């Protein structure tokens, strides 16, 4: 296995998970194994990402490998790469149970994602974000086997864990099965250090935890649901507790699209796009200016 050194790298200050519409359908029990040739959510979100003035030099896009093989999405990802965005891995199939897979199967999924991103003309990814923030020792071993050198998969927010568990429970009460996993509550506990190492079988992977606001999830979805004043306050709390080099602000492609592309059960589906973009742009300006 490869031992990761201090030059393992890490995400840029702003990160965007490029989860397609099919990911949200599965979360809310609208199981759909078909992958759109060109996911409508990504086709709407990526041009808006490219147009945001604060993003390109500061942003890591976590790409789902199977979407990178879609022609129009691939063209937009190449444009993002040429504009200065960084492309890293978010698994090939975005299966929320990836952390429970056997090592060889997880390894194959990760390698397929790395291959798909490299085929776009990007440097072979060294970073990874796990679907649903679910890590395991087996998955970390598979990442090391695949040549991944760092992860940004830990979200130290008990509040997020509770909200996710509520979504899964609500979906089950509606007699549907969510593809999301409740996971291990211990993985979402607050941490003293924003950057730490996973040590597995002689290998070391550097972890860059996603920044939270005193344990509250500081995510694009959270900002979208809050009034402007509260959204600004959440960003200020998050940045007040983070050194500049340790800031990892997480957004999703869904933060940049109209709610019509999201399942009705998705909380931010009812938030007007102009309100979401205004709150996110205000947060981005603060993130980029943070010392």
How does the SSE layout of this entry go?
Blueprint lengths: L13 E5 L2 H7 L12 H12 L7 E5 L1 H4 L2 H13 L2 E4 L13 H16 L8 E2 L8 H9 L4 E2 L6 H16 L21 E6 L2 E6 L11 H6 L2 H13 L8 E4 L20 H17 L2
Parallel strand pairs: 1-2, 1-8, 2-3, 4-5, 5-7
Antiparallel strand pairs: 6-7
Helix pairs in contact: 2-4, 5-6, 9-10
Can you describe what's shown?
39% of the residues lie in helices and 12% in strands. With 291 residues, the protein is an alpha/beta fold. The chain has a single domain (14-289), classed as Glycoside hydrolase/deacetylase (TIM Barrel). It is globular, with a radius of gyration of 18 Å. The chain starts with 13 loop residues before the first strand and ends with a helix.
List keywords for this structure.
39% helix, TIM Barrel, four-stranded parallel sheet, globular, 291 residues, disordered N terminus, alpha/beta, four-stranded mixed sheet, 8 strands, single chain
Strand content: 5-15%
List the uncertain runs.
Answer: 1-5
CATH superfamily: Glycoside hydrolase/deacetylase
Across the major sheet, the strand order is 3-2-1-8
Query: How many separate domains?
Result: 1
Cα distance, first to last residue?
A: 36 Å
Number of strands: 8
Helix/strand-derived category reads alpha/beta
At the first level of CATH, the class is: Alpha Beta
Q: Please tell me what the overall shape is.
A: globular
* CATH topology description: TIM Barrel
Overall mean confidence score, pLDDT: 93
> In sequence order, what are the helices and strands, one letter per element?
EHHEHHEHEHEHEEHHEH
Helix content: 25-40%
Q: State the helix count.
A: 10
The biggest beta sheet reads: 4 strands, parallel
CATH architecture: Alpha-Beta Barrel
